[in-house]
Design goal:
This protein is mostly helical. It has 2 domains: about 5-325, no CATH class; about 330-398, no CATH class. Helices cover about 65% and strands about 0% of the residues. It is built from 13 helices and 2 strands. The protein has helices at about 15-50, 65-75, 85-105, 130-150, 155-185, 190-195, 215-230, 240-245, 255-280, 295-325, 330-360, 365-385, 390-395, and strands spanning about 110-115, 120. A two-stranded antiparallel sheet has the order 1-2. Strand 1 (about 110-115) and strand 2 (about 120) form a beta hairpin. The longest helix is centred in the first third of the chain and has 36 residues, at about 15-50. The N and C termini lie far apart (about 60 Å).
Amino acid sequence: MNAGDPLFSDGIDLTVVLIVIGKTIATFALLMLGVLFFIWFLRKVIADMQNRIGPERAGPFGILQTLADGIKLFFKEQSMPVTADKPVFRVAPYLSILPAFLAFSIVPIGGTVSIAGHRTHLQLAELPIGVLWLLAMSGLGLYGVLLAGWSSGSKYPLLGSVRASAQLLSYEAAFGLAIVGVLVQSGTLSTREIASKQAWDGLGSIGDWYVVPAFIAFVIFLIAAVAETNHPPFDLVEAEQELVGGFHTEYTGIRFAIFFLAEFMNVITMSAIAVTLFLGGPAGPSLGFLPETGTVNVWLMPVFWFMAKLLLLLFGTVWIRASLPRLRYDQLMDLGWKVLIEVAFLWIMVSSVIVIGRQEDWNMAFVIPAAVLGALAVYGVLYLSMPKRDELLEQEIK
């Protein structure tokens, strides 16, 4: 946290420290409950799409099934290969889950509230460089997977971790460039300021959200985020047909469960970041039958709108998981290097021209079509100049 949070405006005392500790615990608990709900939600939605029932035994509608599975894995035996690097093998799962939590800490899930006489944001860490923090944490998430594969002392986990490294490097560039498209529009690195600039009078509308002027960046961000989290159809790091179980083949018990918690926590974090950057964050339309002030509008409504948008994006990831087959490795690389990065670069150019045109009072009816057509022309030239796979195969044969 920093001075941007009004919690620190009057200095730091015991109450402030307790509020910080409480917000940290509450954020982690919220994220863990979100993971438990998301796993149940994923299983029920996919079961419905496949004309199955899904979990229904543990708790009402099977909502406690994920908790039951976690308790079962907690009491399972934790084996370790003889060839494993034991200290690294033990710590790798926690290195996977920690960056996801740290990245979620910069997400504003609500407005400014009063706790014990102190005003504070419903956000764990309000950083002026929040977007840079996000990029750093998304890169650190690789180390848990990489160390898990390397420390196992087995060829299949090692191959899975090498794939994860190549996949993250391929899509981290497109991921960052998609965010640059938002930074061009907002002019700030703070996630709270980005969310507030998409809201009008604290409420906002769809026309104010950056998903409208930066729709291309939004699509690129979602594709890159799914690829970075190793979520289907980009789950090549654990392809059963090729790598048995991938980087976590040798893991059992609670360590095995932590890797799955980290994967789904990453999906929730990336979806929450997408809501913040493109969908207005906690801003939502005003409901006329509610009072202008009070607990409902100040506390509950911003959180409600944030959770509604988050659930919509999570449903989209589940839909993609259930609908699309796993990509081949060459298709994965081609999409990242030959499509997403080029399109993201060109979209930054288009966004920059539009922003400058608005500042200089240019004729936007001419500037916007000209910028888009120019970007399409440049991409067409780049695409035609790229060597085709058949040509490369012929060269290798010769």
